């Protein structure tokens, strides 16, 4: 199931996306549902909208936090001159950084080295604390695509990562949440990032140093996760600078493509 959050006719709603690839009778539509899938049971309203006629929004706005994981791909750690840490490096992005498909990533005036990071994102479905790896699937609602936008120069000069990764618009999510993939399936998904159509990143989630279940276990060992909280699982090698006028697209096989333009602070 692909759960989307969208705007249509001035209203915001949730729906189930039906694509031509599914072979169903309603290609490229959104079946509207009542309520919030992360808050409890929902029901189909019977209304279907053409996917092309709705504006997809960020599929989730975390209630409390986005937890990022750094240096979880060895090749990415190496390209920035770093070792893979013995203990996962984690950081927090505020929910105000979240934007949806098609919304603009805004380059702040404080940076001259804005970079993309294409990532698999995990959406938490229930309140959880100290979850063992073997029970991680019980607390996961689904998966989406993320861009962990980073001011690389500020990350280096600040010697910690909060400011570099927390500006408004620095956490694009979308295009929807896929709920039908198991942990074994998300452990082997191709990830490709393009800038203006040119391939910049080509990786696979099998290259993660620590898999999703282990990340859930580690993060819940020190903080409680709430429904709608998001875990960013790290990025493959190939990160690079983006500038106003660029368009970044991140595709994860089996999930979808997230595309965002880049604009300057005055645009």
Please summarize what this structure is.
This protein has 267 residues and is mainly β.
Short descriptors:
12-stranded mixed beta sheet; mainly beta; SH3 type barrels; Fumarylacetoacetate hydrolase, domain 2; 19 strands; 5-stranded mixed beta sheet; globular
Describe the protein in words.
By secondary structure, this protein is mainly β. It has two domains: 2-56, SH3 type barrels; 66-263, Alpha-Beta Complex (Fumarylacetoacetate hydrolase, domain 2). The chain is 12% helix and 37% strand. The chain has five helices and 19 strands. It has helices at residues 74-79, 152-158, 162-166, 183-186, 212-220; strands spanning 2-8, 11-18, 29-33, 44-50, 55-56, 66-70, 89-93, 98-99, 105-106, 114-115, 118-124, 140-147, 150-151, 171-178, 190-195, 198-204, 230-232, 247-252, 256-263. The strands form three sheets. Strands 1, 2, 3, 4, 5, 6, 7, 8, 11, 12, 14 and 17 form a twelve-stranded mixed β-sheet that branches. A five-stranded mixed β-sheet has the order 9-19-18-15-16, with no helix packed on it. It has a two-stranded antiparallel ribbon with strand order 10-13. The longest helix has 9 residues, at 212-220. The protein is globular and about 55 Å long. The N and C termini lie far apart (37 Å). The mean pLDDT is 95.
């Amino acid at each position: 199931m692909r759960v989307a959050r969208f705007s249509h006719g001035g209203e915001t709603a949730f729906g189930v996306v039906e694509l031509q690839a599914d072979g169903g009778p309603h290609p490229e539509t959104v079946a509207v549902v009542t309520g919030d899938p992360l808050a409890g049971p929902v029901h189909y309203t019977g209304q279907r909208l053409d996917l092309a006629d709705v504006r997809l929004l960020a599929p989730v706005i975390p209630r409390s936090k986005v937890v990022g994981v750094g240096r979880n791909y060895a090749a990415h750690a190496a390209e920035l001159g770093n070792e893979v840490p013995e203990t996962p490096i984690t950081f927090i992005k505020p929910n105000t950084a979240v934007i949806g498909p098609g919304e603009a990533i805004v380059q702040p005036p404080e940076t001259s080295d804005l970079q993309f990071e294409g990532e698999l994102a995990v959406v938490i479905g229930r309140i959880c604390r100290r979850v063992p790896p073997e029970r991680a699937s019980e607390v996961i609602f689904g998966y989406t695509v993320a861009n962990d936008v980073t001011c690389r120069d500020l990350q280096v000069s600040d010697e910690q990562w909060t400011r570099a990764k927390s500006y408004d618009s620095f956490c694009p999510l979308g295009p929807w949440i896929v709920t039908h993939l198991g942990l074994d399936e998300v452990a082997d998904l191709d990830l490709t990032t393009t800038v203006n159509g040119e391939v910049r990143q080509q990786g696979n989630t099998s290259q993660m140093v620590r898999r999703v279940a282990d990340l859930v276990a580690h993060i819940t060992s020190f903080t409680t996760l709430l429904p709608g909280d998001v875990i960013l699982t790290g990025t493959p090698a190939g990160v690079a600078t983006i500038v106003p006028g660029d368009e970044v697209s991140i595709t994860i096989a089996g999930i979808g493509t997230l595309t965002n333009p880049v604009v300057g602070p005055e645009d």
